[in-house]
Automatic annotation (TrEMBL), chain A:
Name of the featured protein: Branched-chain amino acid transport system permease protein
GO molecular function, a single term: branched-chain amino acid transmembrane transporter activity
Keyword annotations from UniProtKB, A to Z: Cell membrane, Membrane, Transmembrane, Transmembrane helix
Membrane topology: Multi-pass membrane protein
Species assigned in the record: Bradyrhizobium huanghuaihaiense
From TrEMBL, chain B:
TM ranges: 6-31, 38-58, 64-85, 97-120, 140-160, 191-215, 221-250, 257-278
Family stated for the protein in its record: Belongs to the binding-protein-dependent transport system permease family. LivHM subfamily.
Protein name as annotated: Branched-chain amino acid transport system permease protein
Sorted UniProt keywords: Amino-acid transport, Cell membrane, Membrane, Transmembrane, Transmembrane helix, Transport
Compartments reported by the entry: Cell membrane
One annotated GO biological process: amino acid transport
PANTHER family in UniProt: AMINO ACID ABC TRANSPORTER PERMEASE PROTEIN, BRANCHED-CHAIN AMINO ACID TRANSPORT SYSTEM PERMEASE PROTEIN LIVH
GO annotations of cellular component type: plasma membrane
Gene source species: Bradyrhizobium huanghuaihaiense
UniProtKB/TrEMBL annotation, chain C:
Family to which this protein belongs: Belongs to the leucine-binding protein family.
Residue ranges crossing the lipid bilayer per the database entry: none
Keyword Transport appears in the UniProt entry: yes
Keyword annotations: Amino-acid transport, Signal, Transport
Signal peptide span: 1-25
Keyword Transport: yes
Protein name in UniProt: Branched-chain amino acid transport system substrate-binding protein
Organism for this UniProt entry: Bradyrhizobium huanghuaihaiense
InterPro entries found in the cross-reference section: BCAA_transport, Leu-bd, Peripla_BP_I
Pfam families: Peripla_BP_6
UniProt xrefs under Gene3D superfamilies: 3.40.50.2300
């Protein structure tokens, strides 16, 4: 059971973190790391394991965010009730979008996902019922605990931690199942996988739908925490890119890659913004951009691949993700 | 009414030519090296700033600004190739997105740091006003950009299909090892491709600066148009980018005039998705 | 082995977090947190605001007898707090509601600011003020116009700027006045982008005109940061409205001016709703081809030697730009907040809140052309107002309406270039 030692240590650290660093801003940063880790881990299923680089994942994020805020703003329900709705929307959309686009190869798939996400953003921006450009607000003065509108980040932190654990468990289970086996085969060579009888199209579609469902949960949680969603913050292409970058930076196709990416990028972004942002010289992004460039240049497989197998470029599957 | 439509279509064609102009560099590196350059829009932005600096410091118009922008960006292209691209080319596609997106932020906010966030603009009518004939009005600066777009497309196409440099570049794109065995140095060829692509992009920026505003974040606006143009035209196809650019320009113009501007991008994206369904390799791309 | 390193990375991240803590509160300093877009497409707004707040803190913290009875100018520091100095801590919202909220939390809990000021974009103001509300810290907004901001039942939110309903009324009255002088103003077109600012202001204006029995003849919406606006200008050229009301940010305002020139389109009356048309970048870039454009503004420079003229001068020295309406409204809002803290005589949130509620500033105590500052139960300034200015002879706006404080008569029709 040696393989479980380190996950336990990480889990223990994650549980204790808000007690060790207890200022509200630090707790919120912790919650944000977990939130982005959920989104990036969800993306990892299709982008990392299946090798289908979706740059439009924000569309599923938006499904969740709009469903949660819509449940409150349109029906007076707790935003929690939006989560199932968001999942249904996201999975349905993934099925509709996935069938035609997943057969596209490489960059065409990425471009198609961008086009889908941008179309959705433009439609929502011009839809009065969804708040158009103004967006939808959540409860600012909570009626009860189910409104999930807390002053402290602590409840969010532990909620996100539980969801992240579930997301990682699902991912782990998936990689060790027949589906994970097929995905690895497809990622290596789709043609070879097909010729060996792997149901490539179906497997990719299932991975895409699973990833969409989990991404929509991340979106719903995001909207609940900030109490607000608008087309830019719920469907903007930059969120897709951010999620993708976190997974890629930590190590796409590795179970803990997205978590590592989020644990580095979220604090980096928030702290550099806190230190440099007020000067108004754009230095935050000069630093941020430079660090990303350096990592891409010298560790193209993500940081975690440096730690797992020194020197060997990490282009293959996540077969050995498990410790 | 019909007369206005003619003006709309002509305007759309000119706009499309501009789209094609700033997309040709993207399609070249994308097709040749299978690299997605997320910093492409920011290359256009740099070209605009070079033209602006040339104008404010030396009082030079596009005659001086455009060649200088081409030169500066071509140099930058070589630097970027050896500094970044060569290292991430063999990595996974994700590393390319990561690297070029980081580069985009770095370029955008370095310019921001230096020039500030204010909107800048070349003086109106720097390229001789507007031509009017038979009620049709065509801005000289846009016409210039359109003509150059055609010339650049033609030039790049001839370069790739009719010259030995072009065939060497294509050979490297096709099969690096084989090209190497034939005595072609892939590094040199790819660096040249980056220089040409970035140079063309800088030229595009310098010409667009004549009728557009200049701001560090302008690359975001233009970059996404370039991406759609290139995918629609087929990655790597220079004539494809021209046809796709013109098509998008006219569709945007017509849908903007007829059904409302806020829907014109939706029309473009939906047509693009619809098109991918039937022709997943783009207008003129190879599978 | 993997996870050992993972833990290491997590620990490193955690340690860097620890470094952010520990901001020390100093005596005799009142910290005010400011949330502005310092990066992204609207970063020029943040840069201007930063320069304006530098000038404002200079006026508050040092003695400026030349400003006469202008509040807080006479002596150094806040008299109500024993001469305490005001310190501004600016945070970048990156134009993103989530970032704005994170920064509001940081300013309140880490920097321990006495009040928060911001945040330009209505969406960011919405999320960042929600945090201030939860913590019970006063939040003053001086430039976001979305109507819903003051409809949330907040107790700590105050807004000094006029909002869309106020300007709609100004436009209706101004056009009626022009009409009485013989101008043709019967058909009105509204051109706006599809942002929250553009759509909400356009809707309010359309409503106000309809109420007066003047339905809007043409509504032209376009996507923000457009690459091309020929279609929109041609639509206007086709329908020939008498009055065109433009609701645009700087990028599109510049492109509109250029496109109108190239397509040779001039409406009789071109009336802009602040925003892009007030940006000094706009007048510098295309002022020469936009002669005669009317614009809404609460900022009108007084005669030489008046506080507004002196402040405008100080601002120009600091930033190199002419003072515009947006930045003037921000600066005025900041003075209102500082004045309330001064009167509260304390940095205790509840006392500042009470002082803000009791605010009653007269026009002569302001640097801007409001009829005063007095907040209603929702926190909205009921005395906010504006005037109409026009770009005449070059790159400077002059006030033309209402007649009482107009420097020149309105020039008609729109001249263009």
């Amino acid at each position: 059971m040696r393989r479980w030692i380190w996950p336990s240590v990480v889990a223990a650290f994650a549980i204790a973190y808000p007690l060790l660093l207890s200022s509200p801003f630090q707790q919120r940063l912790g919650a944000l790391v977990l939130l982005y880790a959920i989104a990036a881990s969800a993306w990892n299923i299709v982008g990392g394991y299946a090798g289908q680089v979706s740059v439009g994942h924000v569309v599923f994020f938006g499904c969740g965010a709009y469903a949660a805020m819509g449940a409150y703003a349109k029906f007076g329900l707790s935003p929690l009730f939006g989560i199932p709705g968001g999942i249904v929307l996201a999975v349905g959309l993934a099925a509709i979008v996935g069938v035609p686009t997943l057969r596209l190869s490489g960059h065409y798939f990425s471009m198609a996902t961008i086009a889908v996400a941008e179309t959705m953003r433009l439609i929502v921006t011009n839809t009065e019922w969804l708040g158009a450009a103004v967006g939808l607000s959540g409860p600012t003065v909570p009626r009860n605990i189910f409104d999930l509108s807390f002053l402290s980040a602590l409840p969010y932190y532990y909620l996100f931690l539980i969801i992240l654990a579930i997301t990682l468990a699902i991912t782990w289970w998936m990689t060790n199942s027949r589906m994970g086996f097929y995905l690895r085969a497809i990622k290596d060579s789709e043609r070879a996988a097909r010729s060996l009888g792997a149901p490539a199209s179906r497997t990719k579609l299932y991975a895409y739908m699973l990833s969409a469902a989990l991404t929509s949960v991340a979106g719903a949680l995001y909207a609940m925490m900030f109490g607000f969603v608008d087309p830019e913050s719920g469907l903007g292409i930059l969120i897709s890119v951010k999620i993708l970058i976190m997974a890629a930076l930590g190590g796409a196709g590795l179970l803990f890659g997205p978590l590592v990416g989020a644990a580095i990028l979220v604090p980096l972004e928030e702290i550099s913004n806190s230190w440099l942002g007020g000067k108004g010289a754009g230095l935050t992004f000069v630093v941020y951009g430079a660090i990303i460039v350096l990592i891409a240049r010298f560790q193209p497989g993500g940081l975690l691949s440096l730690l797992t197998r020194r020197g060997k470029p990490k282009t293959d599957t996540g077969a050995s993700h498990a410790p | 009414m019909s007369f206005v439509l003619v003006q709309v279509i002509v305007g759309g064609l000119l706009l499309g030519a501009v789209y094609a102009l700033f997309s040709s560099g993207l399609t070249l590196v994308w097709g040749m090296m299978n690299i997605v350059n997320f910093a492409h829009g920011d290359f256009v932005m740099l070209g605009m700033y070079v033209a602006y600096v040339v104008y404010t410091l030396m009082g030079g118009g596009p005659l001086l600004g455009a060649p200088l922008a081409t030169l500066v960006l071509a140099t930058l292209g070589i630097v970027v190739y050896f500094g970044l691209i060569r290292g991430i080319m063999k990595g996974p596609m994700l590393a390319q997105i990561l690297g070029t997106f980081g580069l985009a932020l770095l370029l955008r906010y370095s310019v921001f740091w230096w020039f500030g966030a204010n909107f800048l603009s070349m003086p109106p009518n720097i390229v001789g006003g507007t031509y009017a004939f038979a009620g049709l009005r065509i801005e000289a600066s846009r016409l210039l950009a359109g003509v150059v777009a055609l010339l650049v497309t033609l030039g790049l196409h001839l370069l790739l299909t009719r010259t030995s440099l072009g065939s060497k570049m294509l050979a490297v794109a096709e099969d690096q090892t084989a090209a190497q065995l034939m005595g072609i140095r892939p590094d040199t060829m790819q660096a040249i491709a980056w220089a040409i692509a970035a140079g063309a992009t800088g030229l595009a920026g310098a010409l667009i600066a004549n009728f557009f505003y200049i701001v560090p974040t302008v690359g975001e606006t233009l970059g996404i148009v370039a991406f759609v143009t290139v995918s629609l035209g087929g990655f790597g196809s220079v004539p494809g980018a021209l046809v796709a650019g013109l098509l998008i320009g006219v569709i945007e113009s017509l849908s903007g005039y007829l059904i409302g501007a806020i829907y014109k991008d939706i029309v473009v994206y939906v047509l693009f998705l619809f098109f991918l369904w039937f022709r997943p390799q783009g207008l003129m791309g190879k599978m | 082995m993997t996870l050992k390193r993972v833990t290491g990375l997590l620990c490193a991240a955690a340690m860097s977090l620890a470094l952010t803590a520990g901001a020390q509160a100093q005596d005799k300093v009142v910290k005010i947190g400011v949330i502005m877009p310092m990066s992204g497409g609207t970063a020029s707004i943040g840069a201007h605001a930063k320069a304006a707040l530098d000038v404002a803190t200079d006026i508050i913290n040092n003695a400026h007898p030349e400003l006469g009875n202008f509040p807080l100018a006479k002596n150094a520091g806040l008299a109500g707090l024993g001469g305490a100095k005001v310190e501004v801590i600016i945070a970048d919202n990156q134009g993103n509601p989530a970032t704005g909220q994170n920064q509001a939390l940081r300013l309140i809990t880490e920097e321990k600011v006495a009040a928060v000021f911001g945040s330009y974009q209505s969406g960011v103001t919405l999320t960042s003020s929600a945090i201030a509300e939860k913590y019970g810290v006063p939040f003053l907004n001086s430039e976001s116009v979305a109507a819903n901001l003051t409809e949330r039942g907040f107790k700590w939110f105050f807004r000094t700027t006029p909002i869309a309903t106020d300007f709609a009324k100004i436009y209706v009255d101004f056009l009626a006045d022009l009409k009485s002088q013989g101008a043709k103003t019967d058909s009105v077109a509204v051109v706006h982008d599809n942002t929250e600012y553009g759509t909400s202001v356009a809707n309010t204006i359309s409503g106000a005109f309809k109420e007066k029995g003047l339905p809007i003849a043409l509504d032209v919406a376009y996507p923000v940061n457009a690459t091309d606006l020929q279609g929109q200008v041609l639509q206007l050229k086709d329908k020939k409205p008498d009055v065109v009301i433009m609701i645009s940010y700087t990028s599109d305002a510049i492109l509109f001016a250029k496109t109108m020139q190239s397509l040779d389109y001039k409406p009789a009356v071109l009336l802009a709703d602040d925003a892009g048309y007030s940006d000094p970048s706009f007048t510098k870039a295309v002022g020469k081809i936009s002669q005669g454009v009317f614009n809404r503004s609460s900022w009108v420079v007084g005669p030489a030697g008046s506080p507004s003229a002196i402040i405008a001068d100080m601002y120009k020295k600091k930033s190199g730009e002419e003072m515009d309406d947006t930045v003037a409204r921000q600066m005025q809002g900041f003075f209102v907040l500082a004045d309330a803290i001064d009167r509260a005589g304390s940095t205790e949130p509840a006392k500042i809140q009470a002082a803000l509620k009791a605010t009653d500033l007269k026009p002569e105590q302001l640097m801007i052309g409001y009829k005063g500052v007095k907040f209603d139960d929702k926190g909205q300034n009921t005395l906010a107002s504006g005037a109409i200015i026009q770009l005449q002879d070059g790159e400077n706006y002059v006030s033309v309406w209402p007649k009482a404080n107009a420097a020149k008569a309105p020039m008609l029709p729109y001249k263009g270039w």
